[in-house]
Design goal:
This protein is of the alpha+beta class and 358 residues long. The chain has 2 domains: 178 residues, no CATH class; 98 residues, no CATH class. The protein is 39% helix and 14% strand. Strands 1-7-3 form a 3-stranded antiparallel beta sheet. Helix 1 packs across helix 8 and helix 1 packs antiparallel against helix 9. It comes from Jiangella alba.
Length: 358
């Protein structure tokens, strides 16, 4: 390794350490803890109900009734009331299927034939065990937080889209690298056309899509993120079978490094984004998730940087990270596409599900 490569590798290692420290500070903040406690009160529903909510929410977004194309917190009328919020008048909510539960009682629960159905208001006999199995399905309604008003929602610090111009030549250089790996880069009109995503990598189609309605700085950062997925998460790669949070941490960390070496500070987006995805990996602390991805992230970033004609040594150290403690407006969220026999490649932002998001 040349002296130049050693210096660049050292800079990237320092950036990774700074990212780790910034995420550690964020996830230990009071705002973050309050948001986690709030989010724990929500649970995602069945896959069918998720699709129902998603379709109805997109229709409401198209009518201008909700501000974001992706639902965030979903709850029933009584649950919202218990959280200090009220469903707005004339909001029909989203139609879902809910289990129709009945009360069954038995004094010998091990005997399946001994169970009897309790009438409304009927009390079980002394010594009887009571259970509430599902006897069918019924229609029910739930509401997204955007259809309610009342007590403020505790919010985690959210990624803020980059504003302004991109470093000269960086978009073209990243596009050329994607094309060398047989991926066509395309700009789409808006997040709605990507199902709410900022960027999207489709390994089967061989495409990388980026929202065209963002500032150039945000577009080039998103392209660097997706290129990270192209290089690190092809079908058959061991990390593809890992938790999606690990893949998102890896790709976004690469985007931070590529941007920083070009003088583009992505920390306002990267720190809360990485923190949120790392926090979703089970049985591992967010800091440990980031630490264990460090070597692969650094090598991938070096691979990209060494192939780019836009990187010139002697331009000064990359800017340091700014620890994010405020709560900027959340960006349009993202998703992943995978074809038959292909592993998910990546996306940026919240998952398109009715559970709690960023």
């Amino acid at each position: 390794m040349s002296k130049r490569d050693e210096e660049r590798a050292a800079k990237l290692a320092q950036l990774h350490e700074e990212l780790t420290g910034a995420v550690e500070g964020l996830v230990s903040s009071a705002d973050w803890r309050r948001a986690v406690v709030f989010a724990a009160r929500f649970r995602s529903g069945s896959f069918n109900n998720t699709l129902l909510i998603w379709a109805q929410h997109l229709a409401a977004y198209g009518q201008g009734r909700v501000p974001e194309p992706v639902p965030t917190y979903i709850a029933g009328y009584r649950q919202w009331k218990g959280l200090g919020r009220q469903v707005r008048d004339d909001e029909p909510g989203y139609r879902i299927f809910a289990p129709l539960k009945v009360r069954m009682a038995s004094s010998t629960p091990q005997d399946a034939a001994s169970w009897r159905r309790l009438a409304p208001g009927e009390e079980p006999q002394p010594g009887e065990v009571v259970r509430r199995p599902a006897a069918g399905m019924k229609r029910a309604h739930v509401w997204d937080v955007s259809l309610t008003e009342g007590a403020p929602i505790p919010a985690r610090p959210a990624p803020a889209l980059l504003a302004g111009e991109a470093p000269a030549g960086l978009w073209d250089g990243l596009t050329a690298l994607a094309e060398e790996h047989d991926f066509a880069v395309r700009l789409v009109g808006s997040a709605v056309e990507l199902g709410g995503a900022n960027g999207l990598t489709d390994h089967q189609a061989g495409t990388v899509s980026v929202r065209g309605d963002m500032d150039p700085a945000a577009r080039v950062k998103t392209l660097a993120h997706e290129l990270g997925h192209v290089l690190m998460h092809p079908p058959g790669d061991p990390d593809v079978t890992a938790h999606r949070g690990i893949r998102e941490v890896q790709a976004e960390s690469v985007a931070l490094m590529v941007g920083a070496v070009h003088g583009l500070d992505t920390s306002g987006y990267t720190v809360p984004y990485v923190a949120t995805w790392a926090n979703r990996v089970p049985d591992t602390s967010p800091v440990e998730v980031i630490k264990t991805t460090g070597e692969r992230v650094r090598l991938t970033a070096l691979r990209i940087l060494n192939a780019l004609p836009t990187v010139q040594d002697g331009n000064g150290d990359p800017p340091g990270l700014t620890r994010t403690t405020s709560t900027p407006a959340a960006p349009t969220p993202g998703r992943t596409v995978a074809g038959p026999g292909r592993a998910p490649a990546g996306g940026q932002g919240r998952l398109p599900a009715p559970g709690p998001g960023l």
